[in-house]
Design a protein that fits this description.
The structure is a homodimer. By secondary structure, chain A is of the alpha/beta class. Chain A is built from 6 helices and 25 strands. In chain A, strands 6-3-5-4-8-7 form a 6-stranded mixed beta sheet, with no helix packed on it. Chain A has a 6-stranded mixed beta sheet with strand order 14-11-15-19-18-16, with helices on both faces. A 5-stranded mixed β-barrel of chain A has the order 20-22-21-23-24. In chain A, strand 18 and strand 19 form a beta hairpin. In chain A, helix 4 packs across helix 5. Chains A, B: Its EC number is 2.10.1.1.
Chain lengths: 429, 429
């Protein structure tokens, strides 16, 4: 009567899914719309920075050798022969004991090889000419930002796959990228099943609950960098759901269904996979919550069957869907950031399956601490709001004590991990 | 000839600015467009969760007392009198040695007080009736999720000022928020000045550079949660800039100008402030980069005069503009997240001013480590792309050694700090 499912290790399950990970195309967007997107091309310098020797201060451009004998008692004296605002250039050659008033960012005039800051000089007028004096020697090159000292032409400054943050935006502008190639966001369909589900605007009825999974997953998709296509919620009916899934698979890059994956009589997704001719990668994972998570593949497209239970659904998304989305976006570290943290509450009871406990990670005295949030019953939707990490408690025969170092996976970190699934998540016996 | 400016401590400067911080209005948006916005109202439970006693598993609902004598040798035997799918209800009362087949999430029928998981039972047929037997006793309440055990009606689940993450989205859906009140994003104007500036699409010219600050600040505004209104770049001309600033101040919540704040001859923003009748909060801060950062106030609106130098501009934004934006959005911890980290490179040279060094903070063995990135010359735009933190080196007479614990301010953390400016940033003598 009941199908017997064989659980596989979380690490193995992720590895199976990642075999189908692929890079998406790139598309060009205006620089002004690129914030937060992922670079689809390397950012290359189209010129040296600075692209001319320039002054980092307001002051005077001079020849250093003219200051050799300058001192408190015997200041060196310069005739001010002109001035250069930022953006303009001084076309004459500067000669001995001549100075040019120069503004921050302006080009050093020919002949000059040092800049003296304005506050170290004293100006005066004589015979209708302007002079400046200074009281100490300067070295050749003092206070000059040299051509190419920051960046050399053709340097690769930021690699494809990097998030466009404000610093990257500044570089793109500096090097003339008025449009920029970014990774296309994958289109991710959501099909929610469950006869017990009400729409958000509907009043409650006996035995029913409002559909929260769709909105949660939609937000998870956006956080991971995808575009949401919501197909609606459907009653537990084989024909309706089969037609819906079949149609949807053609319109999206990735499809997520929620509900219908358990072994209960009403859980008909396995039959849908069969009729679709889908290749089921796995239908049981040695983890809690989310052990019934099922992933299948049809013509190279992934079909994620997440649990209808909110917490299990949430965990399933972050473990299996997120790295697929991030790889599509050309991210090099597509998995959640993995770190170590001190466990602030014990979990004395052992569990054969690896647990992903919703937790809050905080930095205390430079050290990560992990505190479980809420009840951590798999039905406890309220704790998901507070969580910023999963506390990973490997399955086995022992419990976990307060003060132990445990693995945490961060939910909100921009930084990712390359392959966080070393032992003890790699195998399950 | 030169105006003498008195530097004030970073902490004092931030405190001055924060006197003018205010909360913005709230607006309603559809739940589907609320991801990443800030809650403008508390999320309150409109019902208990579960709002009926329900089964967390597929199995059978029974009366626990009927299992008292069940054992391997003498299984208890139940007549299966019906079944309940998720979303439906069983209307009859269940009597002694009767069981109801129940699906995950379905309501416990009247009379039952425990659920037995499907895999612990064995079904059989007799006299055209369906039976089930089980081999161990169950306690009253076993495998039942009780009404209200997760959330009680009227509970405040998430407070105003919280970012809407996937977990919060799930709660909003569960409690019927098809629209949600969120904090309005402040409109922030950008006016860039500098005769040396070219537009991004223009080819380079001698003495000129492309305008990168506008794009950088636009991205910083988006990261902080504001809406960008870009007014363009203008040559260093008093009349043009005065008219621009005056007009702009009426159209935005906050105005940022870049360039024109130094003491050079072409830096005429001080004169603009005077003509506007602005109250200048400060025009010199004991920090590097960004010491010339100027903040003024006109009729309660803030006017941020950031340096034209990219790094100084970047730092000025994060220190002074970010907390104003975050307060407008009702965030309770509006400043950058402050943590401690191990300094991975020494800064032997002392500096009287507090330095904000662009750095990369990483978690290594559960401990934060801070590595400076790039040259950290204030002109070095390339390092801004790699930075995810400022390493704070307080001003004074000593340098900083590798291995010391230093304060870091995180740039990409969603979490903030309430008031990170304790000593040594609070005072400057």
């Amino acid at each position: 009567m009941l199908e017997k499912r064989i659980p596989i290790a979380v690490g193995d399950a992720v590895a199976h899914v990642m075999k189908y990970a692929k890079h998406g195309e790139v598309e060009r967007v205006p620089l002004t719309e690129s914030y937060g997107r992922i670079l689809g091309e390397d950012v290359v310098a189209d010129h040296d920075v600075p692209h001319f020797d320039r002054s980092p201060y307001d002051g005077f451009a001079i020849r250093a050798e003219d200051t050799k004998k300058a001192s408190q008692e015997h200041p060196a004296q310069f005739e001010v022969v002109g001035e250069i605002g930022a953006g303009s250039v001084f076309t004459e050659e500067v000669k001995a004991f001549q100075a040019v008033r120069i503004m921050t960012g302006a080009a050093i005039p020919t002949g000059c090889d040092a800049v003296v800051m304005l506050e170290l000089t004293e100006g005066f007028q004589k015979d209708e000419k302007t002079y400046m004096k200074l009281k100490r020697p300067f070295q050749l090159g003092d206070n000059i930002s040299f051509k190419g000292e920051d960046v050399k032409q053709h340097d690769v400054l930021v690699e494809k796959g990097t998030v466009i943050n404000p610093g990257v935006a500044a570089l793109l502008a500096t090097f003339g990228y008025s449009t920029v190639a970014v990774a296309r966001r994958p289109v991710i369909g959501i099909v929610t099943t469950g006869s017990e589900l009400l729409e958000v605007h509907e009043p409650l009825e006996p035995g029913k609950i409002r559909n929260s999974n769709s909105y949660m997953i939609a937000a998870q998709i956006m956080r991971a960098g995808g575009t949401v296509r919501y197909y609606g919620q459907f009653a537990d009916d084989f024909d309706t759901c089969y037609e819906m899934v079949k149609k949807t698979m053609e319109e999206v890059d990735i499809l997520i269904t929620t509900g219908g994956v358990s072994v209960g009589d009403y859980d008909y997704l396995p039959a849908i996979y069969e009729k679709l001719g889908a290749h089921v990668l796995f239908n049981k994972v040695a983890m809690r919550p989310g052990s019934v998570t099922t992933v299948a593949e049809v013509n190279g497209k992934l079909l994620f069957g997440l649990s209808g239970n909110p917490s299990a659904c949430y965990v399933g998304f972050e473990l299996f869907v997120r790295p697929i989305v991030q790889t599509f976006l050309h991210r090099k570290q597509p998995h959640m950031y993995r770190g170590d943290a001190i466990l602030m509450k014990g979990f004395p009871k052992a569990n054969p399956f690896t647990r992903f406990v919703r937790g809050k990670v905080e930095i205390v005295n430079g050290q990560l601490q992990a505190v479980p949030v809420g009840l951590d019953k798999s039905s406890a939707v309220s704790s998901l709001a507070d969580a910023n990490a999963f506390i990973v408690l490997p399955g086995g025969t022992r419990g976990f004590e307060e003060g132990m170092t445990v693995t945490v996976l961060l939910l909100e970190a921009e930084q990712g991990s390359e392959w966080p699934w070393k032992e003890p998540f790699q195998s399950y016996k």
